[in-house]
Design goal:
By secondary structure, the protein is an alpha/beta fold. It has 17 helices and 16 strands. The strands form six sheets. The protein has a five-stranded mixed β-sheet with strand order 2-8-7-6-5, with helices on both faces. Strands 9-14-11 form a three-stranded antiparallel β-sheet.
């Protein structure tokens, strides 16, 4: 039976949310072009679109907001933030950005050139798009077990080391400006990566002379999974494990809107001083002066405090338990979800829910639309709408192996009753799954089409 882990905090401030009628949601969904990104947030009851920047900040973080030093250069909050990164991650140089894709933009504009290839376990959407926008080619090399939603594996986000080695040999290390790994593996179901696998990945990259960067958005959750699941780490603290993770890397990119528990912010950090100088110049051009990087001083202070709070083990026990409760409750209701549950989200298996809808008609988008229509719940499609793309040589459409609906849980926001409501609505959608229509696109952009595309149901 699903067990709910009590919150290690008490609620000090509340924000009202309202429920709409089904008739109203039919209109809202049609006006949005059947794309949940186009909905007004006021018309969403339970918002599980993302865990990025949607969490509740703590009393300490809000107190830090009031201590913001808004000096243009050398604000004290930058040095508090820099010290937090050095303490937790061990990297010497850090450049703040407005969010994760700002960090990607700055780093890739320096390192990635047309025709080059960037391998990863699984790239997320903005990472992939920023590489493609520079004429590069992002490639994924996650272990084969990741493509089976029902398969239980403690570290399903792991890099396929043999496949990575073979890929580098075939491609040539000179054509790979940097190698990456994403922790946790968001596009692969929020699945963690073992420390052993991170070390093996680093060894392969470094043996070929390839700089190794970690996409560290959810590094604290990943470290907690290592502590709980990987032999030999139960007695180590999450912060000790985090330092071991980053010790084998040359740098990292991070959207601080995840495991640093803030509403806005990100950074890129590294050991190489010469690379940092190039990053600082690019940062000044694209984001802001190197000691604020597109953020206010108050944001830097909240981010510094959030890095410590995000690695607190009482918080992480609740955080992972919250997600586990939703996953277990859905499984008990007979609804297929990706197993095991990840750190920040539960992923519905849309291929199993709507097998009558082909990938070209976006089955995960159909389930996403139905969740909103039936209960005002906003999830997000991680399937063919987000990840399908034409082959660069043949133009043939390539579809992802998984068709998922991500229910990302904002940090410190929803209660057990909210999650129980999500389960009830999902049960209704599942019971009526055969009536779900497919969708066709009537408008899309070249990159990141899922954010702004407009669709219509196919009769």
């Amino acid at each position: 039976m699903a067990t709910f882990v009590p919150e290690p905090f008490r609620i000090k401030s509340v924000e009202p949310i309202k429920q709409t009628t089904r008739a109203e949601r039919e209109i809202f969904l049609q006006e949005a072009g059947y794309n949940i990104f186009n909905l007004r947030a006021d018309n969403v009851y339970i918002d599980l679109l993302t865990d990025s920047g949607t969490g509740a900040m703590s009393a300490s973080q809000w107190a830090g907001i009031m201590l913001g030093d808004e000096s243009y250069a050398g604000a004290r909050n930058f040095f508090n933030f820099q010290n937090a990164v050095r303490d937790i991650m061990g990297f010497e140089f850090v450049a703040p950005t407005h969010q994760g894709r700002g960090a990607e933009n700055v780093l890739f504009s320096i390192m990635v050139h047309a025709g080059q290839v960037v391998p990863n376990n699984t790239h997320f959407d903005t990472t992939m798009a920023n590489i493609l926008a520079r004429g590069g080619n992002p490639t994924n090399h996650v272990i084969p077990e990741a493509s089976n939603p029902a398969y239980d594996h403690p570290f399903k986000g792991n890099m396929d080391i043999a496949a990575l080695e073979a890929f580098i040999e075939k491609t040539g290390a000179e054509n790979i400006p940097l190698g990456m790994i994403t922790i946790t593996n968001n596009s692969g179901g929020g699945q963690p990566v073992s420390l052993e696998n991170i070390r093996q990945t680093a060894e392969v990259y470094h043996r070929h002379g390839i700089p190794f960067f970690i996409d560290a958005c959810r590094f604290a959750e990943n470290a907690y999974f290592i502590q709980q699941r990987e032999p030999g780490y139960r007695e180590k603290s999450v912060r000790e494990i985090a330092r071991e993770i980053f010790a084998v890397a040359d740098g990292c990119l991070m959207s601080a809107k995840k495991d640093a528990l803030v509403n806005i912010g990100g950074f890129v950090t590294m050991r190489d001083e010469e690379l940092y100088r190039q990053v600082a110049q690019e940062l000044t051009l694209r984001e802001g002066f190197p000691t604020y990087g597109g953020l206010a001083g108050r944001d830097l202070e909240a981010m510094a405090r959030g890095l410590y709070e995000g690695t607190d083990e009482d918080y992480l026990r609740y955080r992972i338990g919250h997600t586990q409760y939703l996953a277990d409750s859905l499984l008990e209701a007979g609804i297929p979800v990706l197993r095991p549950s990840g750190g920040h989200a539960v992923y519905l298996d849309a291929k199993q829910i709507a097998p009558h809808i082909p990938a070209s008609q976006f089955p995960a988008q159909a389930v996403t639309a139905a969740l909103y229509l039936e209960g005002g719940i906003r999830g997000v499609e991680l399937g063919s709408l987000m990840f399908a793309h034409p082959h660069p040589q043949t133009g043939e459409w390539l579809y992802p192996e998984l068709e998922l609906v991500r229910l990302a849980i904002p940090r410190r926001v929803y209660t057990q009753a909210h999650l129980d409501y999500v389960v009830d609505v999902a049960k209704h959608v599942f019971e009526n799954r055969k009536s779900l229509p497919g969708y066709r696109i009537i408008y899309q952009t070249k990159f990141l089409r899922h954010f702004t595309a407009r669709l219509e149901p196919i009769s």
